[in-house]
TrEMBL record:
Superkingdom classification of source: Bacteria
Region (Disordered): 34-53
Protein name: Alkyl hydroperoxide reductase/ Thiol specific antioxidant/ Mal allergen
Record-linked InterPro entries: AhpC/TSA, Thioredoxin-like_sf
One Pfam family per UniProt: AhpC-TSA
Limits of the Alkyl hydroperoxide reductase subunit C/ Thiol specific antioxidant domain: 66-181
Biased composition (Pro residues): 34-49
Organism annotation: Desulfurobacterium thermolithotrophum (strain DSM 11699 / BSA)
Gene3D superfamilies noted in UniProt: Glutaredoxin
Listed GO MF terms: antioxidant activity; oxidoreductase activity
């Protein structure tokens, strides 16, 4: 008595990191083999590699140098990439200041920065707000540590480096001037874990 003919298709898994919240897996079928007699015992299909544990909040970016920016803060302080050398810098880009999400992010960053040394946080309103508005907002929110500015051009400079950059978003630069991490999916709900995630990331930068 003959055995039924079967066609066995193997599936390979390619891991492609795509965004700041983890890795996606794409299943690509291999071309089916030519039909042949089935063996007495069909070998088991290979086990698929399980998904990796999701990275916390951000994705690491390797060897991308920060743009040569020059900005003016609400306190009329000029800040350049060169002046930040030797310090860890966190840039947060916001679409407007007077929103619940923007205010919550800035308050969380202000609290986080109180216990940090050699770290600079720059909040950038991409709407080019007037500096009188920036000063008023900074005073009303009691932002003493976070540097505040409004500059759509700086946002565009960083977006040329990180194509997926949206708002609200966050970029971390190491003390050598390289962009090391970014997050472009900051929501009101995950702001509560922001300080813990930043703590983990800054430790990896030494």
């Amino acid at each position: 008595m003959g055995f039924p003919r079967t066609c066995l298709a193997l599936t390979f898994v390619i891991s492609i990191p795509v965004n700041s919240f983890g890795d996606w897996y794409i299943l690509i079928p291999k071309a089916p083999p030519q039909e042949r007699p089935s063996p007495k015992k069909t070998p088991p299909l290979p086990k698929l590699t399980p998904p990796k544990e999701t990275k916390p909040y951000t994705v690491e970016v390797k060897k991308i140098f920060a743009p040569d920016f020059s900005i003016q803060t609400a306190n009329l302080r000029k800040l350049t990439r060169k002046k930040l050398e030797g310090k860890k810098a966190i840039f947060v880009f916001l679409n407007g200041l007077y929103t619940p999400t923007s205010e919550s992010i800035l308050l969380a960053l202000e609290k986080f920065l109180k216990k940090k040394k050699n770290t600079v946080i720059v909040a950038v309103d991409i709407n080019d707000s007037d500096f009188s508005i920036l000063k008023k907002f900074k005073k009303s929110m009691e932002l003493k540590k976070v540097l505040l500015t409004a500059d759509s051009y700086v946002y565009e400079q960083f977006k040329k480096k990180i194509k997926d950059l949206k708002v609200p978003s966050l970029i971390i630069i190491d003390r050598f001037g390289f962009i090391r991490y970014f997050a472009d999916k900051i929501t009101y709900e995950n702001i509560t874990t922001l300080d813990k995630e930043l703590e983990k990331i800054l430790k990896t930068l030494g």
